């Protein structure tokens, strides 16, 4: 509620203005009155009102001088001048002081009310602008920190932004809060709820974290929120994770997985801790029904780098150079077996080993003219391609196929996705119009839900339900272009019980409403 002070040397005028309006309905509260300029100035310094209604002709200090002194202290205060004198000189002086609100006595209640409404609207607009400016500034500072955390670049800018936000890195940890959807309908409902309640959800998330330290919560992206919790204690991190899981389950009716890092003590550790957190989040699907995964809690970072793979590299190179495929396959199995002892951040060592072996195989295939036209793509396979192979099992299959080619035992086609993911995509295409659940899909494929969710996201770079949404939208485009069905009928046909949500989703995806899209295709 805004505050107002009334200044007039006639007490009856003050009482009249107090009584002629319903001030509370305007969102205004009278906080003080004064009968001369000096008294008004003293009250102004104490009360700092948003609005001042003041007479011009007053003893000790007139209204114009009072405004001058008050503006020196608070230039944002709004003034309404009231006088029995229709003197243009007064009006001119008031305008020069930034006061455009001038009312002649006797005060008309409707004129006063309209003037106050204009002023309250002006103040509200200014506050909204200030709030947006603060929000934009805060968003920029957070983006600079997140960019450094994600890439390790521009540490000086990140340090400045952290300082501006008051972040201390003497004791901090990183969190990922990952949304989990068990069916397409749950995915739709969660997205509707996020659209409607994102502000409330993030506010409640910060309330949870504030019990364990100070925080920076980044915006929701790629089905998760990331946060920095600082001034925190390592032993309190599991409790924070547990409380967050309980909040989502009990208040929001959503399921989440929570991953957290070790506690760091310097800002320079941010990129490394975030890199490890991403690995942990990537592997969180393998913990079964356990919604929390944290270093130092239920995940131990082994010093896998101490394992010396050099002897394996040497024997693998020798076996390949002598075309001893059986020996090479045995060495490969031994090395990949060791991967069971590795933590997620150590898997690059196995990728290095396999890539070195692959390069030798590729060179021999090329020199021995074993690359037919349909196998030429092997020449373009890069380290990145091999590093993106989803699992150790898939890596084993790929490497054994390469060894098979080297032995002359067959040809290899290059599918876009693994056979499991391809089968999953086909099932989505065959059943896109139903409320599919993760359990149904995985039962059909005879695979665990956690493993398939991870594998699907890794290979397609899409959440399972986002991929199904694309299938539904593509089918709806086809129906809009080739039939005269109503958009709500199409919504039902492609699996949406809520036509309004379908239209909103369609426009978000295409930039057009279903009817606009149809108009352009006719």
TrEMBL record:
Keyword Phosphoprotein belongs to the record: yes
Organism name: Paenibacillus pini JCM 16418
Lineage top rank: taxon: Bacteria
Entry-linked InterPro entries: CheY-like_superfamily, Homeodomain-like_sf, HptR, HTH_AraC, Sig_transdc_resp-reg_receiver, Tscrpt_reg_AraC-type_HTH
Modified residues (4-aspartylphosphate): 55
GO molecular function: DNA-binding transcription factor activity; sequence-specific DNA binding
Residues in HTH araC/xylS-type domain copies: 422-520
Pfam families assigned: HTH_18, Response_reg
UniProtKB keywords: Cytoplasm, DNA-binding, Phosphoprotein, Transcription, Transcription regulation, Two-component regulatory system
GO BP of this protein: phosphorelay signal transduction system
Keyword Nuclease applies: no
A GO CC term assigned to this protein in UniProt: cytoplasm
UniProt-annotated location(s): Cytoplasm
Domain Response regulatory: 3-120
Protein name (record): Helix-turn-helix
